[in-house]
Amino acid sequence: MKTEGIPFIPEDTELTSDVLKAQEESFKKLLDKIMKKADEYNVTIRVIGSLAFRIQCPDYKYIEYENKRYLTDIDFIAYSKEIVEVDDMFRDMGWEENMNVLRLFGDKRRIFYHPNKNIHSDVFIDKLRFCHDINFKNRLEIAYPTISLVDLLLEKLQIVKINKKDLVDIMVLLSQYQVSDDGSSKDVINGKYVAKLCSKDWGWWKTATTNIEKAKSFTKDYLDSKDKKKVSYRLDTLSHLIGKKKKTLLWKLRSLFGEKISWYREVEEVERD
Question: What is the pTM of this model?
Fold first, then answer.
């Protein structure tokens, strides 16, 4: 695989819209090469993270540019049953694996470096395991080349110490798509799925509902009046769906302890080569 045109931005570069758009196009070209190689190896792999939000939200990604959101890597979810083929696929492209991650998290996560070392890909296996788990069993086929819209939202809602860039991603996603309690359409955010997840797990409920409120507050300073009203309505819809969903006995028992017991996982730092 040729190494020219890899989207690396030097630290002293002014992050103008033109610079960020050019970088994004370079990332998309690289992603296209990876996805074509995945097809050759019959691998079901989907992109997550910042690039996925850009791909799925073409009408509102300008918000990312305005907030100087630049891309740093291309991360994926893959199935454990295909991880050998994923490894072969990246090696065929000349990428090098992080052996520290392989030794420590081989059944959960892999990291591969592009030949020129300016970019890497984290490949998460079956689940995202951060503050809370997001299970992708039988879910990667829902969308292409990214994970589904609701899984993109969950990727952000699970973050306990959520920051500006993650809230910006939520703004972009909810500006582009409606929240619905009907899971049959791929072009809306499946709020029913979020509500079901939160009804089973008090910790997930606690983090998600807290972040929904943070996102509502965030809209005041980062969206115009029309989009602020729209996004606030969609966040309220999501809150309503979560609130009305009957909670399980396990949820109710865990709620008795509240914040006295930690309800989330501390995120492990990965040692990179």
Answer: 0.94
